[in-house]
Each structure stands twice: as C-alpha cells, then as structure tokens.
Amino acid sequence: MTQNDTIISKMEHVEESLKDTLHRVEVIERKLKTKLLTAENREKLENELEGVKEVLRRNEKELQSLRRENSKSFMITVILIFLCFLFYGVYLMIFGNV
C-alpha cells in the first residue's frame, strides 16, 4: 500500500487478506482432520496453522484500527457540515432573507 491510499481502499485490502487467510485456515484444518498424515506432516501443518492464525489476528487488529480511523473521519465531516449550516443560519438571521 502506498501513502496515497484511502482508508476505504486500505480496509478493502485488509478484508481481502482476511478472507484469503480464513480460507487458508479452513484448508489446513481440513487437512489436519485426515488420519493419513504422518507425524512430521501433521506437525508442519500445525505450525503453519499457528502462523496463519497469527497473521489473521494481526489483520483483524489492523482492520479495527482502520475502522476507528474511518469513523473519526466521518465524525469530522459531519461536524464540518453542521458548522456550515449553523453559520448559514446565523448569516440569514443577521442579514435577513436572501
């Protein structure tokens, strides 16, 4: 991601990454359920599963922080719009009907 990406595009990127990671977790868990795995392969899959789950937790935290940042931006926008209407109302009250 570059510096010029919007919060929404960053959120979409992280959500796609989450979806891919969840799919990978499902695949690994399905493989672990089979009884045809050797002990070495099972251990490799379990280690890979732990790594993938760590990536999943990191991406979820990133998504939460992006959503917080997005809600802050939204609140600032709402406040600015409210102030514009307030100033317009005060202007109309002072200078009469336009």
Task: Write a brief caption for the model.
With 98 residues, this protein is mostly helical. Helices cover 86% and strands 0% of the residues. The protein is built from 2 helices and no strands.
Notes on the protein architecture:
The chain is an all-alpha fold and 98 residues long. It is built from two helices and no strands. The chain is rod-shaped and about 85 Å long.
Biggest sheet, in brief?
Answer: none
Helix content: over 70%
Strand content: under 5%
The helix/strand class is mainly alpha
Query: Low-confidence parts, pLDDT < 50 over ≥5 residues?
Result: none
Strand element count: 0
SSE topology string: HH
Mean pLDDT: 89
- What is the number of helices? 2
> Which shape, going by the Cα principal axes?
rod-shaped
Rg, Å, rounded: 25 Å
Distance between the termini: 48 Å
Pfam family, one: CCDC-167
Keywords: Coiled coil, Membrane, Transmembrane, Transmembrane helix
Protein name: Coiled-coil domain-containing protein 167
Membrane topology: Single-pass membrane protein
